[in-house]
Every structure is written in C-alpha cells, then in structure tokens.
Give the backbone structure.
Amino acid sequence: MTRFSMGLQTGSELLFDNVRKAMSIEQGEPERLRLPDAGTVVRKAQVGIVGAGPAGLMLSHLLHRDGIDSVIVEVRSRKYIEERNRAGMLEQGTVDLMIETGIGERLKRQGLVHHGIELRFKGRGHRIDLSGLTDGKTVTIYPQHEVVKDLVAARAAASGEIVFEAEDVIVHGYDGSAPVIRFRKHGEVQELACDFIAGCDGFHGICRQSFPAGVLTLYDRIYPFGWLGILAKAPPSSPELIYANHERGFALQSMRSPEISRLYLQCAPNEDINNWSDDRIWNELEARFATHDGWRLNQGPIIDRGITEMHSFVAEPMQFGRLFLAGDAAHIVPPTGAKGLNLAIADVRVLARGLSEFYRSGSQEWLDRYTEVCLRRVWKVQHFSWWMTSMLHRFEAHNAFDFRRQLAELEYVTSSRAPSQSLAENYVGLPME
Ligand code: FAD
Ligand code: PHB
C-alpha cells in the first residue's frame, strides 16, 4: 500500500516552507537549514513517524482523529509486521481505547476476556480475581499482530500513508525547527519534512541512537535467563493464564484462541532453540505445571517457536528538541507482567494529546511535559514487571533460601487482599493520568 496524501515538492519550495513554518511555530530564527540533494524526492507531513509497530500505528491513528496528518516510515513489509508473533494480553485501557476510537470490532468478536489469572506454586493453583479486586476491570487476550492489522486497516481506510520496506532510515534537523526523516525506497532517496518526529522504532531502532552524545541516561537490567515460547495447535489447558513458579524454573500458560495455546518456559538467555526437541519442551512444561490433583496439559503440534531475552531498560529523557521516543524505543520490560505493548500505547496517548494541544492552541506545555508524564507510568510498570519476574523465576545463584523466600511471598500475595489487590490493579493497568 503506498498512498500519498500530500503532494511532492522541490527542495527549494520545501526549504521556503520550512522557514515560514519555523517562524510561525517558534519565535526566532530556525537553526541551520540544509538543502536536500538534487534528485531527492521531498514531501511533508505534520508528524513523521519512524516504525509501524503498535506505538507508531496507534499514534498515527489518534493524530488522524484530531485532524493531524502523519506519515509512517517502516523498514519491514506489511506482511511481516502483520504476522510477527509477540504480545497477547491487552489491559482494560488499551481495549477501551481501541473500541472508543473505532478499531475494536474484531477485538470485540475475537478477544478472550479474562477476569482472573492463576499463580501456581508447590503443585497448587491460586486464583487472583482481577475483576473482583479492581471494580470489575478485565484483561483481554488478543494477539499483537491482530492489533497491528486493525491499525493498518484503519490507516488505509483513512488514506493514511505507511511507507513499507524503507531502507537506510535516518532522522535529522530535530534539534532545530526543520525535522526530516530521510530514507531510500526502491533505490530513490526520499525526505519527509515534518514539524515533529516520533521515534516509534522499537528497542533496536535508530531514533534513540541518534540523540546527541551525553543527552540520555540509560537504566538497564539484563536477567540471567530467557523465555522459550511456543504456539501449539492444542486447546488451552485452563481458561485463564497460569504463571507457575517451579524449582526447575518459570512457566506460563497463555493462549491465542480456543484452539491455540501459547506456552512459555524459562531457559538459558543464550539458549539454542535446536537443543529443544518437541518432547523435551512438553516434558519440561509438564514438570513445571504439575499439580497434586493431576491437572493435565493439552498437547498438540508446535506451529511456532522462539527465544526471547529478558531485559528492563529505560532511556531518559524521552524527547530532545522535536524528536519524541515512544514505546520500546524508550523502554522495555520483561514480559512477565504483560506490559510492553500496553505501555507503548500509553506513551502515544500522551504524545497525541501534546501534539493535538500544540496544533489546536499553539501551547507546547503538554509536549514539554511528555517525558515527565510518561516516565511516572514507565517506572511504576518497570517496578511491577521486575517484581513479577523476581517472584516467579529461578535465578542463577538461586539457593534454598531464595526459593523459600519466593514461596513465602507467593503465599502472602495469594492469601491476603492487600498484595493481591496491588497485583490485580497493576495487571489490569494503572489509570491514565
Ligand atoms: P515494536 O513493536 O518493536 O515496533 C517497532 C517498529 O519499528 C517495527 O515494526 C520495526 O520493524 C520498526 N523499525 C525498527 N527500526 C526501524 C528503522 N530504522 N526505520 C523504520 N522502522 C524501524 N507486551 C504486552 O503488553 N503484553 C504481552 O502479553 C506481551 N508479551 C510479549 C511476549 C513476547 C515473547 C515479547 C517478545 C514481547 C511481549 N510484549 C508484551 C512486548 C511487546 O511486544 C512490545 O513492547 C511492543 O511490540 C512494543 O511496541 P512498539 O511499537 O514500541 O515497538
Ligand atoms: C502472551 O500471551 O504472549 C503473554 C501473556 C502474558 C504475559 C506474557 C505473554 O505475561
């Protein structure tokens, strides 16, 4: 899909426009303006977005609803992003946003609404009643690639442009008033001139890396384990998710549909997937989920498998000049709390609001506070994801003391209202500011 909602311009027309824009948007002279090279195709959008993951697509969708035009530049193909297997669990707020903004039809039909989760340890399951502890809130299983499909379809229906398979993407000019996303498409160099750039290009993207040296402070924790995840053609063994702490390591039962199970087990961080035969995977899952009352794990053909690293990371600040980072580009969490996608969506809600305020009233107040507002949620979510990870996994230097301490914590969390309520309100998603 390649749709052009804006006309093409020559370099000099654009330069002139940028000067005018800089004058009207900010008082004062624009910083150095660079002439595009001859032969470069130049066009404009109010907001240029790098990355068509959940963050970039949702931002573009929200901006469109507020009458702000954006173009997304993505390195991968549409097919690739619509099939990439990742998250599965949506917070109540993410679900509400999709429905309120008109992209929730398939979600309402196909999403699996969950009212609780199970924490399993010492061979016994303990239910956390998410809805009962949060005034009726729920979470919904709806795969990330389905969210992506719904968003891509909404952008297409609104004639929004996504440039797929862009190469050599770079961003510049965002420290002054003439931000540009430059890339190659079919061998031709193109420049997208915009008022603002949103760096929604994930953890390995280029936007965070393009911040000038010394601006960012990075906070980091790498866990000494990974997750081996499989999709199996087998009905989920239990209607709710099961988070299991076992001496052999963590295991998680999730699902994608009434016919497909999504299962994870803790493994070495640099594990070679070839060391895991189907039999070994099923035996390990059986052992970690085993209960005293003979609970059975449904098995079936494995249709997808992969290893995920476990990492906590925050970059501060999340903005520099007219470049704003959102989602995994700015922070990542280990998947134990099911938070990454939801946090990406929370960021772009704040960013969309700031940009809308700016175009509506000319006020930069919300944009200036973007980092501060986002990071308040980010650090709470970091804490929750770290806490769930620490309580449920076997650590490298794990000893009998640590294991018993974890079991005591799990017993406390599952038997006392205060800690189970704290888990529940974080799990369904903290309210937006
Ligand atoms: P991404 O999804 O990474 O999107 C970034 C996009 O930018 C990609 O399309 C990429 O191709 C593109 N890009 C990269 N570099 C460039 C470039 N140079 N130029 C242009 N485009 C570029 N989260 C949850 O909330 N719930 C869960 O249950 C959950 N489970 C998970 C399970 C696993 C196994 C994993 C790995 C993650 C899970 N997550 C979960 C996390 C979630 O998948 C991520 O947090 C989410 O994808 C972040 O979205 P994003 O848009 O910020 O980044
Ligand atoms: C998933 O379904 O992929 C999933 C669910 C919950 C998690 C992590 C992943 O905590």
Observations:
- The mean pLDDT is 91.
- The radius of gyration is 23 Å.
